[in-house]
């Protein structure tokens, strides 16, 4: 569980992170959705939030033309969600548990070296 996110549940915060990798996830009755993994996520006071989070690439992420290693900042709300297997197969064991994510990211900004000095 992401304990640092749990302590600020339902708050809107500024997040700073680095692009770790790109991927995709399957989608029911549709083409796969592109995803991005952000690593080393911290808030605006440089407090560690989590080591990584996966996001579906929407308009905000797509408009930035990101590549691995880019640093970005954005605002998002901390929200709980349930993770784990909720089906009926007995051969799958992934218990359902509560975890925390960053929801509704917006106000994206790429951070170059000059902007990075202003943030900290």
Going by helix content, strand content and strand pairing, the class is mainly beta
- How are helices and strands ordered from N to C? HEEEHEEH
C-alpha termini separation: 27 Å
Beta content comes to: over 45%
Catalogue the unreliable spans: none
Number of helices: 3
Could you give a short account of the major beta sheet?
5 strands, antiparallel
In words, what does this structure look like?
There is one protein chain. By secondary structure, this protein is mostly beta strands. Helix content is 13%, strand content 56%. The chain has three helices and five strands; from the N terminus they run H-E-E-E-H-E-E-H. It has helices spanning 3-6, 59-63, 113-119; strands at 12-27, 30-43, 48-56, 71-83, 97-111. Strands 3-2-1-4-5 form a five-stranded antiparallel beta sheet. The longest helix is centred in the C-terminal third of the chain and has 7 residues, at 113-119. The chain is globular, with a radius of gyration of 16 Å. The two termini are 27 Å apart. The model has no long low-confidence stretch (mean pLDDT 90).
Give a brief rundown of this model:
The chain is mainly beta and 120 residues long. It has 3 helices and 5 strands. A hairpin with a 4-residue loop joins β2 (30-43) and β3.
């Amino acid at each position: 569980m992401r304990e640092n996110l749990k302590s600020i549940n339902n708050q809107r915060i500024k997040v700073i992170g680095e692009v770790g990798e790109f991927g995709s996830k399957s989608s029911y009755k549709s083409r796969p959705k592109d995803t991005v993994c952000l690593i080393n996520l911290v808030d605006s006071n440089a407090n560690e939030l989590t080591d990584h989070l996966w996001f579906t690439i929407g308009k905000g992420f797509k408009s930035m033309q990101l590549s691995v290693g880019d640093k970005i900042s954005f605002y998002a709300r901390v929200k709980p969600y349930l993770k784990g297997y909720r089906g009926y197969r007995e051969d799958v064991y992934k218990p359902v548990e509560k975890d925390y994510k960053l929801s509704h990211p917006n106000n994206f900004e790429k951070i170059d070296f000059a902007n990075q000095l202003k943030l900290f």
